[in-house]
Amino acid sequence: MGVHKNLKRVIACLLSVSVLNPIPLQADDIDADISPTECKDSGVLSGKMISDIPWNALYPIKIAGVPVINKGKAPREASKKPVCLCEDNLGLPTPGVTNSLWEPARIVELVRSPGCFMSLAGAEIGISDKRNQGTPGQNSPSARQLGMWHYHYYAYPLLLMLEIWFPGRCSDGYMDFDLMYMSELDPTWYDDELSFFTTPEAVLFTNPGALAACIPDALATAAGQPIQELFWCMGNWGTMYPFTGNTLEKGDLAANTSQVGTKAIASMHRRGLARLTMGDDSLCRPILFPTIPKPQYKMSMFYPIAETQDTHWIGEATVNWGMWRNTPTEQDAVYILWRWQDCCNSML
């Protein structure tokens, strides 16, 4: 579906739910001097989709379990099967060989101004209530204020769009650039307490014991990749819960927007809009997975300063990849979400 059709869909959606009034942040959490920012074009549908992508992040590429290009690192949970067996459209078992690689599959866009779609060429939709305006927060000896970002979640099957890879069953159904979700229409994204009603398990993971368990995840991420079982942790970025756009300002745009973006991905898994594509169980089709499988994902900043050489794991310290990507005039960000894809390609 083209960009213009997607934009029309968004506008129609907004008009149909105009009665919704998302719960805003409390007044104490919003900077009274915030003014709407210019909505810029991030260039995801320009020549930057070639020049600003870290193509080395595709590796390793495996066919029949054998690395064709043995660079990079696959998740520990990735399938190691050389051959596979899946049902065809008639329900008959069909043999195949496994294909595996890192796929640039999604875009997560973090913006302060509601209705700003940087990935849709900077299109703006009139959601101008100042109470819903996001903020990068403040961090000073006299004040510590929550930062808040809205998110937009896009399908971005770049390999399919460029006709490079993934024939047949290896597609998850999204064949083109498409807007999948926007947080402006989600009241739970604005309020930590309201979010509890959609994620009641948060009470189990916001206590000192659960937070202390995140230390091994931070160490594992620094040494290699995150621990899937500690799904409530984000390594060096903090804790996953609550699933809201709020984050404590740490003076690091890369860490804050990555943290909020990861919460967005986790919420997509909870809603069934993101699925497990890693491991033996996902060879025939992506499956529902209610918590975020962190080793399945890597991220690369696309805007404002692109990562063109490599990606980073969820929870990886920004000193390794992003601390210097802060710019005085930019507080919004766009990330490419790379997804490990284990797939059974039919031999018939």
Tell me briefly what this model is.
This protein is α+β, with helices and mostly antiparallel strands and 348 residues long. It is built from seven helices and 16 strands.
Give an account of the 3D structure:
This protein is globular. Residues 1-35 and 137-144 have low confidence and may be disordered. The strands form four sheets. Strands 1, 2, 3, 4, 9, 10, 14, 15 and 16 form a nine-stranded antiparallel β-sheet that branches. A three-stranded antiparallel β-sheet has the order 7-8-11. It is 17% helix and 24% strand. By secondary structure, the protein is an alpha+beta fold. Strand 7 (138-140) and strand 8 (143-148) form a beta hairpin.
Shape: globular
Mean pLDDT: 83
The percentage helix is 10-25%
Largest sheet: 9 strands, antiparallel
List key phrases describing it.
alpha+beta; nine-stranded antiparallel sheet; 16 strands; globular
Any chance you could write out the topology, listing elements then pairs?
Layout: H1 3-16, H2 48-51, E1 61-63, E2 66-69, E3 83-87, E4 93-111, E5 116-117, E6 123-124, E7 138-140, E8 143-148, E9 150-155, H3 158-161, E10 178-182, H4 192-195, H5 208-212, H6 214-223, E11 246-248, H7 253-271, E12 275-276, E13 287-288, E14 297-303, E15 312-313, E16 333-346
Antiparallel strand pairs: 1-2, 1-4, 3-4, 4-9, 4-16, 5-6, 7-8, 8-11, 9-10, 12-13, 14-15, 14-16
